[in-house]
Amino acid sequence: MGLIKNFSSSDQYTKYSVIIIILFSIIVLSLTSVYHVSGDGCWHMSVSRFISEQKKIPLFEPLGRDEPFWSPPLYHFVAAFVYYAFSVFGHNAANFAVKLISPIFGILSLIVSFLLVKKLYSPKIAFYSAIFLAFIPIFIDYSVLSYVESMLVFFVVLSVYFLVNGKIVLSGIAAGLSVLAKYNGLFILPVLVYILYRKFGKDGKLFYKNSLIVISLSLIIASPWLIRNWILLGNPVWPFLNFIFNGYELKSFSSLDLSRFVDKSLILSAYFGIFGVPDGNYAILSAIGIEHLKILLPIWIFGTFIFLIPLFIGFFRKSVKEKRLFSLWILAYFALFLMYVANASPSVSRIMLPMFTALAVFWAYGLDGLLSNIRLKGIFIILIILVSAGFVFTSAAKTYMAANYWDFYKGDFEWARENTGSNEVFIANGQCIPYNLERTSLYFNEENLKKSDYVWINQNFWLDRRSILDDNSLKAIQSKKYKLVYSDKETGTEIYSAKQ
Hints:
A five-stranded mixed β-sheet has the order 2-1-3-5-4. Helix 16 packs across helix 19. The N and C termini lie far apart (about 70 Å). By secondary structure, the chain is mainly α. The longest helix is centred in the last third of the chain and has 34 residues, at about 375-405. The relative contact order is 0.10. It has helices at about 1-10, 10-35, 40-55, 75-85, 90-100, 100-120, 125-135, 135-140, 150-165, 170-180, 190-200, 205-235, 240-245, 265-275, 285, 295-315, 325-345, 355-370, 375-405, 410-420, 430-435, 445-450, 470-480; strands spanning about 425, 440, 455, 485-490, 495. It is built from 23 helices and five strands.
C-alpha cells in the first residue's frame, strides 16, 4: 500500500519513469526467458558452475578458454551462489535462475540512473534519460546476456549516486565492488574525485580526506583480487597491459598496436555494437541470412540516426547543468575504449557501457529541446516511439533467432551428456561447446589429445568459430583413426572416442 500511495502522490514524470522501468523489466525478463547462453557468457557460466561445485576459485582449469581464470570474480561468486541455491530444485532450474542475474542488475542500473539524474536535475530530464537507457540496444543486450556488464554498470552508477548524496563511505564501497565486477570500474574514480572537488574544493583538508577515503576503500575492496593476479600471473590487471607488467604470456594481449586506430572498421564496429550487433561484427548480418537485408538495413541505420539526434543536440545545449561532471565521465570511459583498442581488440562497444548514464543526460536535454519546439514535438514523439519499438523488436528477433540456432544442436549436446561419463574429457575448442557439454574440455594439441576420452568435431559451427579446427589439427586427429561414436549429418557434428 505504501508503494502505491507514493506512486499516486508522485509527479507525472516520475510516474512515466516508473512505467518505463516496468516496461524495460518486462522486455529484458521476457528476452532472458528464451535467451541461450553464448559468447563470453559461456565462460562466465562455466567458471561459476565450477566454483559452485568445487568450492574453490579456478586458475588453470580448462573451463572454455585456453588461458588462466583472471576475471574479477564478483559476478562469478554471485552466479555460483545462485547455482548452489537453486540446484536443490534441479539442474534446469539452476541454469535458468543464474540467467536472471544480468536482468536484475540491468533493472537496478536503470533505477539508480533515474534516481541520480532526478537528484541532479529534474523528474522530466530523469524521465527522458530513462527512455534513452531503456531502449538503446546495447543497454537492453547487456541486461539480458550472461556477461558481467550489467553488474559493473550498477555499481559504477551507484558509487556516483551515493557520492552526490554525501555518502562518502558507501560510494567508496560501491566503487570497489565495481572493480571486483570488472577492471573497468577503476575508471569511475576520477569522476568521484571530481565530485569531491566540487563539494570540498574550497576546503583542502576535507577534499583530500574524503578523496583518500573513497579511493582507499575502493582499492582495499579490489586489492585481494589484484594482488592474487599479480602473484599468480605477474600482472594485477592481467591480461591487459601485459607489455608493461611482463606477466604470464598471452600473445593476443601482450602488445600495444596503435595501427588499430586507423582500421576503417573501428568506428563501424563500435557503432554497430552500440546498436545491438553482437560484438559489433556487422559481417554477421549477411552470414545469418536475414531476408530482405538490403531493405531492412538502411531502415535500421536511419532509425539509429533518428535516435541519436537528441544526443548531438544535447552536447551543444548551454543549459546542461553539471556538464563537466558528465563530460568527464564520458571521457574517462572513452579513454578506456582507446586503451582497449590498442591493447586488445577493436570490438569493444561494451567497454564503454558505464558511460551511458552520462550520455543519457545529454540525450535527455537534447530531447527536451526538441520537444519544446511545437512544430517538431508531435513528429519527434512518434519517431522516438517507432524507433524504440523497432529496437525492442530487433533485440527480440535476435534473441529468438540465436536461441533457435542453439536448439539446432541440442540433440548433439544431449547425446554427449547422456552417453559419456561426467568425469570424461573432451577435445573441444571454444567457450560454448564445453559449457553445453558440461564436461571437462581441452583445446587441441598432441599432449591434450593423450588426456582425452572423446573428440568433438564440427567444422561448420559458426556459433563459436574458435571451436572450428584448422586443417593441420583436423588432419592430426583424423590420422589417429579414432572410432566414430556419434554423427549427425544435419548438424555436421561428429564425436570420436579417443580411448585406447
